[in-house]
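Session log. Operator J.P. requested a structure for one protein chain; no other inputs attached. Running the standard single-chain path with token output.
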Amino acid sequence: MVKIRLKRVGAKKAPFYKVIVADSRSPRNGRCIEEIGTYNPMVEPSEIKIDAAKIEEWIKKGAQPTDTIKSLLKRAGIVKA
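Structure written below.
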């Protein structure tokens, strides 16, 4: 199964995440199919940059967003609540 999830790339105590499409069996920071955005929780307000067209394309192909990604998409206004 293909999932849309977060990949942590930030330093210790300074998280920064990439929004990726990956196989559900691969490790959190392992190989990904495509990178489709970023999330920076360290700035105020949190910075969410996600390519809406790519998200919709992957969801149509059957990719399942994680609960965290669903909440980020709602906050970014890409998916309606």
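Operator note: Strands lie at 2-8, 17-23, 34-40, 47-50, 64-65.
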